Amino acid sequence: MNSAMTGALPPVGDTAWSGSEAAYAASYRDLLRVAYVLTGSAAVAEDVVHDVFCRVGPRIATLDNPAAYLRVAVVNQCRSLHRRFARASRLPVGVDTTMGAGLDTGLTEFSDALQSLPTRQRTAVVLRYLCDLSDDDIAGILDCRTATVRSLVHRGLAALRTQIPRNS
Amino acid sequence: MNDSFNIHANTNGDDNFDVLVRRRLHELADHAPSFVRQVDEIVVAPAHDGRRSPRRRTAGIGATIAALVGAVGITTVALNGAGSGGAGTPNEAVLLFVEAVEREDLLGMIDVVDPAEVPALRAAVQDGSSEAKRVQLLGDGFDLSGVDGVDVAVADLTLETEQFSNGVAVVTASGGVITTAFDPASFPYGEQLSELSGSSAPSTSVTDLGQGNSDVFLATVQRDGRWFVSIGYTIAEYARRAADVELPSGDIAAGPGFDSPEAAVSAFYRSLAAFDFDAAVATAAPGEGDALIAYAPLWLPAAGDLSTSIHDDGYQFAVTDIGFQSTGGDDRRTLEATSFVIDGSVPAFDEAVPATPGGQALHIVRGDGCTTWSGPGAARFISPDGSSGLGADFTPVGDDQWRSCDASPLGVAAVVLPLVGGGLTELPAIVTVNVDGRWYVSPLGTVATSIVDVLRDIPDGASLFDTPLGSIVYGASRDVLEAVYVGQSYVGFAPGCEALFQIDSTGTITAVVDDPTVALVRECGSTLVSFGGSSSGEGSAPAPTAEVSTDPAASTLPVDPQVATTVAD
Known about the structure:
The structure holds 2 protein chains of 2 kinds.
Chain A: H1 20-39, H2 42-56, H3 66-87, H4 97-100, H5 105-116, H6 119-129, H7 135-142, H8 146-163
Chain B: H1 17-29, H2 61-74, H3 76-80, H4 90-103, H5 106-110, H6 118-134, E1 150-163, E2 168-182, E3 203-208, E4 217-223, E5 226-229, H7 231-243, H8 261-273, H9 277-281, H10 290-313, E6 316-328, E7 332-346, E8 360-367, E9 370-374, E10 395-398, E11 401-404, E12 430-435, E13 438-441, H11 443-456, H12 470-473, H13 478-485, E14 501-503, E15 509-512, H14 518-527, H15 546-550, H16 561-568
C-alpha cells in the first residue's frame, strides 16, 4: 500500500508521483477553465484545481481516464465550495475582481447571470455546453437521473434567458 | 413576454439561445488564468489521517437504520463476499448486529445484513443522503457512517429465537434496556433546519424491552449456511403479526424472470393494471424479494377477491405502448416510463352498482412530458375546469379531454392504477435487478427510490415549507395554510402569529409570508386549535374547505374550528 492510501501524501518530487506530473499538465488548462466558469473566480479556480490534484495525489498516474476523473473531482469541489460560501453568505459572485477583468459588457452580464443560477443548474449547463458531456455523463457526475439533468439544463437556460439582454 | 425570451421555448437546439450559451461559456472560459503552475510549485498540505475522529455513538432506532443503510452504501465491496459474513446462528447474527451498533462498527453491522438486500438499498441511501444534503435538510456534516448527536446503548439483552421451516428465524428481545440519547446541538441539521440546533435540551429515553406490550424483534434469514439480519423479512413479519394471521407455508417460488429490464417492468405495470397481483409478485427478484414472495399467500386471496369485485363494478384497464428511459449499471437499472397508453373503462357516475359492464371509456396517453386524459370516463375523475380530486392540475383541451404537464402528486401510490383517479399523470420509476442473467423488479429498491424521489423533486434552494415535506418538517405546508386561511379574517391567533401572514388593512389574511421559521409555523399551527375558540363572533373563520381533509398535513390543523370552540371552552 502506498503512502497516499494511508492518508500521508509524499512530498511532490518523490518518485511516488512519477507520471502524475504529466497527467496534471495535460489536464490543468481544461480543469481550470471549468473551475473558473463554475466559481467565477480565477483565484478560487486555481485553488480548486490544485486542491484536487493534491487530494488525488500520486494515484493520478494509475487512473484509467485521469482527465475525466479529475474533471469530476473539480466539479464536486466547486459545488462543495459553493455550498460553503452560500452558508457563510459570502458567495464569490461579484467579489472577485479578476472575473470582470478583460470581459466585455456582454460577457460580464452573462457571467453574472451564470453565477446567479443555483449550483446544480449552473453545473449542468456548464457540463453540457462547455464540456459537451452527454446527459448520462452529467447525471453520473451530479448523482441524479438523466431526466433531472434535462430539467436542470432547461431551467438553467430559462433563467439565463430572462437575465441576458436580447442583444447578447 | 417577448417571443425571443419565452422561457417555454424549446431549449434543445431549435432556437439560437443554447448556441449563444455555448459560445459565451467558451468565451468566458478563455478568460481563465493561462499561467500553468508547475507541480513543484504546489504546496502539498499534510494530509489528515484517514481514520475518522472518534464520534459519539450512533443510535436510536431511526439512526441505527440510517447508519445501517449508510454503511450499506459505503461498504459494498466488503459485502460482495457475502459468504464470509453472517453468523452461525440467528441469535448470534442479532447479537453481532446489536454489538456492532454499540461499537459503531459499521462493517460489523453490514456483515450480518442479508447480502441479497444490500444492493437494493445502496443506491437509494447514497441518493437519499445526497438529496437530503442538497435540499439542506441535513448538513454536510451528516455522515452515514456515524451520526453525531445520537447515542444508543443496549444493556442486559435477552433474546429468544423462533425458527421457521423456510430458513427464516425471528429473534425477539424478551428483556433488556435500550437507552437512547439525542443532543440537538450536535445533530448535523441542514440550513433549512438550523434553527432546531440547540433549540431544545438534550434528551434521553429509556426503553425496558421486558415491559412493553409489543414484541421487538429482527427477522433473520439463512444464506449458504450463514445467518443474516433481513430487512424484508423483518417488515413482513411485523405486518403478519399486526394482521394476526398464520405464518405462510410452502417453498419460495420466484418467477422465471425476463429477458430485459423493460420486459420486467412492462409485465409489472400490466399486471397491476389488470389487478393480477399474483403476476405482479412473480416479477419480484429472488433473494431480495423472497420475503414478499413468501408472505404473498397471506394477502393474495384477499387481493384476488378485491380484483374480482373491482372488475364486477366495471373497472377495466390495460397499459400498452410503454416507452422507457433507463439509467443504471449492468446489474441494476431504474426505468422511467416516458410514454404509455392506458385504455380502460370505468362505471358511470349515476348508474346503479354494479355498473354496466363496459362502462365509460377512459383513455390516458403520456408523452413529451405531459399526460392527456380523454373520453367520457375521464369526466368521472376530472371536473370540467380541470381540477381533480388528487392534486394534479389539468387544462381542458377539448370535449372530455384534459392535459397535465405536472408530475404525478401520488408517487408510488400511482402504481395501483385503478385505485387512483385524476391524479395519475405518470407511472412511478421501477428499479430492476439482474439475477443469474434474468431481469426482475427490485421491490426494496423501487420503494426506496420512490422515497428518494420526494427529495429529488424539490428544486434547488426551495424552502421545505413550500414543498410536500413542509407538512412533516413544519407541521403544515404553505399550500395547506394558504388553502385554509387566505381570505379569512386574522382573528384569534396567539400573539406573534401575525408574523406568519400577510394581512391587509381590513384584517384579512392575503398570504403566508416567505420563509417563515419552523418555530413560528409550529407554534402558530398548534395555537390554531384555539382559532375558533376566541372567534365565535364577527370575523370568525368559516369551516375549513374540503381541501383540508384531503391533505394528510391537515391532521396538524383543526379539522373543524367550531368543534375546537367547544373543546377550548
